[in-house]
Amino acid sequence: QVQLVESGGGLVQAGGSLRLSCAASGTIFSVNLMAWYRQIPGKQRELVASVSSGGNTNYAGSVEGRFTISRDDAKNTVFLQMNSVKSEDTGVYYCYVILSYDKSLRTYQWWGQGTQVTVSS
User: Fold this and answer.
1) pLDDT tens string 54-67
2) CA within 20 to 30 Å of 39's CA: 26, 50, 89, 90, which one?
């Protein structure tokens, strides 16, 4: 069993910064992809940013240059540094992880419970 614990969400003014964290714990042999998704009211859940086990990153065009994703493999933790936030960044942010339980390297997907980010203008 795996738990993803997210933290760092909250209320921030437009132009400000926020840092999200997501720590994975439990039966983990290796962690492949780590990512952040968000769901804005009335819209489908969308990928915000991802980072592979090799450190390759991918960003949605709407956040590129403003958000930075990083990971700490020793702690199985992924971060999202959000700078110059805009009102359209408001939504629920979900941590997403692809990992393996053992050396078979069969992969499994896990989602965090979500953390609310609200940007006030």
Assistant:
1) 999 999 999 999 99
2) 26
d(CA 89, CA 99): 28
Euclidean distance between CA atoms 36 and 96, whole angstroms: 6
User: Is 90 exceeded by the pLDDT of residue 41?
Assistant: no
Q: Which residue has the tokens 């964290």?
A: 21
Contact 74, 12 (CB under 8 A): no
Tens of pLDDT, residue by residue over 27-38, are: 999 999 999 999
- Tokens read off for 101: 């339980």
74-107 burial: b if 16+ Cβ within 10 Å, else e? eebbbbbebeebeeebbbbbbbbbbbbbeeeeee
